[in-house]
Design goal:
Elements lengths: L14 H35 L6 H8 L2
Length: 65
């Protein structure tokens, strides 16, 4: 049984729906950035507890400031 299915490559949506989806996408992107920020803070706190940090002045000297 060999049946062919025709698939449309594009779909049409209303402008309002497009704007709503775009807004949802932006909110998700902002949430992801926030989540990465929280993970960075958590990692930094872990490094501080393990004494893996260096003084800010020493860091600036290494960077040439």
């Amino acid at each position: 049984m060999n049946t062919a299915v025709k698939i449309r490559e594009k779909i049409s949506i209303s402008k309002d729906e497009y704007l709503r989806l775009k807004q949802i996408n932006e909110r998700f992107r902002n949430f992801w950035i926030y989540l990465e920020h929280l993970m960075d803070i958590q990692e930094a706190r872990k490094e501080i507890r393990q004494k893996k940090t260096i003084p800010q002045e020493k860091l600036f000297k290494k960077l040439g400031f």
